[in-house]
Amino acid sequence: MPTYDATAAECLIYTFKEGFLSRLAHDLKLGVTSLSVTVETEPLAVRASFETRSVQVLCFRRDGRDDPTPLGALERSQIESNLHTDVLASARFPTAQFVSTSITPSSDGFVVRGALTLHGRTAEITAPVQRVADRYVASVTLRQTAFGIKPYSAALGSLKVRDELTVTLSVPAGSGP
Fold this sequence. Notes:
The chain is mainly beta. The chain has one helix at residues 73-87; strands spanning 3-4, 10-15, 17-18, 27-32, 35-41, 44-51, 55-62, 65-66, 95-106, 109-118, 121-132, 135-143, 153-154, 159-161, 164-172.
């Protein structure tokens, strides 16, 4: 039963801007730096735990790619403060957890179903998992409002983060079925 932390597992969160002033903002790539993913082989199951306070801004994104423009320390600090305080409420909800309920083979990998608890609410999610080189990669689109999270907005709503965001989780392929 292998268990992976952030040295072997990677959880990325992609946010997308919208609104009248969205051209002044950035899509973001965030990373979870404190997590634990356990893969059980008999029966096949996955458990994961993520510390919400460990979510950090990795970079801006432009046109679906990482933007090489450096992120200033003040801007990074402000974004992360808003994220931890206003969006994730990390002091009140320090952990997000996922527990699989079924894992089934698919034509190009697996389909993992399970319960994600985030911001004090639990919702069933389904994530396709594909083998990419030497890793298994799961990707899922989540709606923040499904977990009682109000997407960040500023300037009276003319600049905001879209409700839908994408989360990817990858682990070494040696851990899978």
